[in-house]
Amino acid sequence: MQAQPGEFNSNEQPPAPDYSLAKNWSGLPFREDAADVIPSAETWKNDSLKEVDVFFIYPTMYMSGKTWNADLSNKKLNKKIDKKPIRYQASVFNESCRVYAPRYRQSAIKAFFTLEGEGKKSLAFAYNDVKQAFQYYLDHYNHGRPIIIASHSQGTYHARRLLAEFFDGTKLNKQLVCAYAVGFAINDTMFTKLKPCEDKNQTDCYVTWASFRQGYQPLVTELAGNICVNPISWNRDTVAIDKTKSIGGILLNFNKSYPTGAQIHKHYLWVKTKIPFVRGFTNMHVADYNLFWFDIRKNVKERIDSYKATNNQLGKN
Fold it and tell me: Distance (Å, rounded) from C-alpha 77 to C-alpha 32?
């Protein structure tokens, strides 16, 4: 593994992506890609029939390299992104939404250990790609359609800023169904108008959580802020939700679900699960989506139905 240079220099980073090119999107509607996987019990719904879009920002998959920020010509990294977060996270939205997942020059994991120094500069550089991709999406794909913003980990670090700039008290806010901004700290002071969701049907709001094994108390974590929503009950109370109330999560097999219990504790989530491999973790960050995959999938439909009920008509452009 190669270590990042000590000093961040934007001129030394890989070239910027052109979002008019399909190759610079990991997930894109009306083509076959990793975001299209579904359980065998379901029938694929054509993207032309879906009335809502999801803009998905994937987590850190770039561990180390010659530059602070990832090179989008790195085929090995792109394949890793497609096979993991796009397949197992972005796919949760494909039953109800057209999936847009831009490739971006994400920061290496090292950036999160120097958030007040060079890492902060690298992350700001990465965010500029996310912003440019979203603006391209708005200008060329959206056509006034309702939007879900979804993200994980580094993706949520960027989604926080995207939500603040594009949706918090703006005209575009009326198009926001919900934001699933998972796996990185969100505090209620980050937004002026945008609020956390209080139930499963609320729209124009956001949900967030950070997952840890039941009983484990992290001393310090950047993964959790002062807001947490339980992804089974979809509210913010601290009542323990038994696994019998969960539809289930997945590991690698989309045809086998594992019910998961969850309880909000000190603004993060205590999780009880039998998902193999994951159940042995104390920090379940990597599985924030997997743990509640079917619960999220159902909730996306519920919020879209609620949005439709309170808005005149959804377009299919």
Answer: 19
Helix (H) or strand (E) holding 259: none
What is the rounded distance in angstroms from the CA atom of residue 270 to the CA atom of residue 282?
10
In a 3-state reduction of DSSP, which class is residue 269?
Answer: strand
241 within 8 A of 232, measured Cβ to Cβ: yes
CB 144 within 8 A of CB 314: no
CA triplet 4, 80, 160: central angle to 5 degrees? 70
Average pLDDT over residues 198-222: 95
Report the alpha-carbon angle 67-71-76, nearest 5.
Answer: 115
How does pLDDT run across 225-277, given as a tens digit for each residue?
Answer: 999 999 999 999 999 999 999 999 999 999 999 999 999 999 999 999 999 99
This prediction's pTM: 0.96
Structure-token pair, residue 173: 């806010």
Count of C-beta atoms within a 10 Å radius of residue 147: 25
- Quote helix, strand, coil % in the chain, to nearest 5: 35, 15, 50
